[in-house]
Design a protein that fits this description.
This protein has 324 residues and is α/β, with parallel strands linked by helices. The protein has one domain: Purple Acid Phosphatase, chain A, domain 2, CATH 3.60.21.10. Helices cover 23% and strands 22% of the residues. The protein has five helices and 15 strands. The protein has a seven-stranded mixed β-sheet. α3 (101-114) packs parallel to α4. The chain is elongated, with a radius of gyration of 31 Å. Residues 1-23 have low confidence and may be disordered.
């Protein structure tokens, strides 16, 4: 090789790519990718992952909204007349009939479970009915229960159209209650047939008045029970009149997320009584998470519920609540 050839080789090498590099203007070799392309690919994969996770979360929340917890539990009640011990009460709340089809499905599961258990009473604590025509299937389901001592209901905010929902309006549902054999109580009481000289009265609070119409006269019966939609606070004057109350409205928060303080409702609901059994005055307040959903057909860490309570006579001032 002569000097000219050596010189030409050195010059060519200096102008060409170093260390396996790519010459300017050449196409990328197979298997290589520009940094911008790699970033776009990673972003697309991340977006796909988030979309898949979101879809899975929505599917679970839709499933949970229909995963009804049907349970039987003893409820020790101080002051309950002994002849009434063992009274079986089915507590249902917030069906939201006509809002979403899953609400009807959930109620159907509850009725199928409760029918053979033969409850003595059924309590419906508000937000039961919506549009009259779309509510009819749920009314037909409730009519199958036929408890011997009756079904009693109170209104909630949705029956009065008091909701943030865009189609909210007052519902004229009086005829539906009657068709199903349900007694709607509006600041009024019904006394049950006596047992061994003792009586129990079922009193219902109208949603608009909050039950303050019941303060004008002493409740009837030896043991009055209150049905009310929105759980009253511990300092409510109603607590001095009723040793036992049943409520709903909260949905238990409907959608809750883990937080340092425990599961916390997404809507920041900080009310005193969210779900469960609470000391209330000298008695107890029972708050149901409800059966249906509103606004969105979803629940998270707050399963819908229906409970068949067996009221049990007790002398203890701090009874233990035991699920069965």
């Amino acid at each position: 090789m002569n000097d000219g050839q050596d010189s030409h080789a050195l010059v060519s090498g200096a102008e060409g790519p170093q260390d396996g590099g790519q010459a300017r203007g050449e196409e990328p070799r197979a298997g290589s990718a520009a940094p911008g392309g790699r970033r776009r690919g990673a972003a697309a994969r991340a977006a796909g992952g988030f979309a898949a996770a979101g879809s899975a979360a929505a599917a679970y929340m839709l499933f949970e909204a229909q995963w009804v917890r049907c349970r039987e539990a003893d409820l020790p009640v101080v002051g309950l007349p002994a002849p009434w011990s063992g009274l079986k009460v089915l507590h249902l709340s917030d069906v939201h009939a006509g809002s979403f089809l899953i609400n009807q499905r959930s109620l159907s599961k509850v009725v199928h479970w409760a029918e053979p258990l033969t409850p003595d009473l059924v309590f419906l604590t508000g937000d039961i009915l919506g549009d009259p025509e779309r509510s009819r299937p749920c009314i037909d389901l409730l009519a199958r229960l036929r408890p011997p001592l009756g079904m009693f209901a109170v209104t909630g905010n949705h029956e009065y159209g008091l909701s943030k929902a865009p189609l909210a309006r007052v519902r004229r549902t009086g005829h539906l209650w009657e068709e199903a054999g349900i007694t709607l109580l509006a600041d009024s009481c019904v006394t049950l047939p006596p047992r061994e000289g003792t009586s129990v009265a079922i009193c219902g609070a109208d949603y608009i008045t909050g039950g303050f119409g019941l303060l004008d006269a002493a409740p009837a019966g030896d043991f009055p029970i209150l049905l009310i939609h929105e759980p009253p606070d511990s300092d409510s004057p109603l607590a001095s009149l009723f040793p036992l109350a049943f409520a709903g409205h909260t949905h238990g928060g409907q959608m809750r997320v883990p937080a340092p303080s425990g599961l916390t409702p997404l809507n920041n609901d900080t009310r005193e009584h969210l779900a469960g059994v609470y000391p209330w005055g000298a008695g107890l307040l029972v708050v149901s998470r409800g059966i249906g959903t509103s606004f969105l057909p979803l629940r998270l860490f707050t399963r819908p519920e229906a409970t068949l309570w067996r009221l049990v006579y007790t002398l203890s001032e701090h009874p233990e609540i035991v699920d069965r």
